[in-house]
Amino acid sequence: MSENPALFEAEPVEELGPTGRPWPDLPEPRGPKEGPRRAVVIAMTNQKGGVGKTTTTINLGAALVETGRRVLIVDFDPQGSASVGLGVNPHTLDASIYNLLLGRDLNPADVVIDSGVEGLDLLPANIDLSAAEVQLVSEVAREQTLRRVLKPLRSAYDVILIDCAPSLGLLTVNALTASDQVVIPLECEFFALRGVALLTDTIAKVTDRLNPDLEILGIVGTMYDGRTLHSREVLERVVEAFGDTVFHTVIKRTVKFPETTVAGEPITSYAPSSPGADAYRMLAREVLARCPDA
User: Fold this and answer.
1) Is 27 part of a structural domain of the chain?
2) Residues pairing with 224 in the sheet
3) For 45, 107, 258, 292, which has the most beta carbons within 10 A of its beta carbon?
4) Residues 6+ apart with CB under 8 A from 95
5) What span, in angstroms and rounded, lies between the C-alpha atoms of 101 and 169?
6) What span, in angstroms and rounded, lies between the C-alpha atoms of 208 and 113?
7) Is 2 part of any domain?
8) The domain that contains 163 carries what CATH number?
């Protein structure tokens, strides 16, 4: 009696991504938006420094531009890291986001700088911004100041990405109040994981008291090294705790990212065929899939 080969065929194995979940079926990014623009504002925030927040802001912005979006990056960190990462010297600025926050005599569009990447603009910052935290305390509706600054710019862009300072102070509260969505870059390291609960608590308070439309778009794992048990365990714990809030895309460690900072350009143009560039393109697709208004 002959055996039926079909009985012994293995079931197809679903490919799992680095987060341990099957990759979603992401639609191809559509072309440029038609009709009038109104930017979706996304705060890139984590109170812990050194988690890849600025790197993610710059490279996600550049990847979104490749899909036909017009993107504005708002450097809202007194260290001016996003400005430096796009080739701008913060010490030579005639005007910055600080001047827009504390005065009304400037047009925000006049402070915006061309990043050198077509479709990607920058609202720069420098160390002057550190004084804003103190000076805003006495302002009326102090938490709404950044929202006022960005309001006239929203019609010129599809996405506005705010690179927040590594703190939970008044500047970050301003960024969250001005935003529609939050993306949390999270280094795949234990101490970074501990701070997420504090951050989500702050986001919940802002949602409850200042910005009821604010939502967490997702958590993205950064600086991931799949060769180490520690990175794998941290990522596994993040997925266990936050489930589908965690993006499927994970940004792995690579020497290319520090090189792009020195070059003053995104990885999508500095090393367009590198795995890092491909990862941010995939993250951009996930962002567009989760945020259809972008």
Assistant:
1) no
2) 252
3) 45
4) 106, 110, 111
5) 15
6) 34
7) no
8) 3.40.50.300
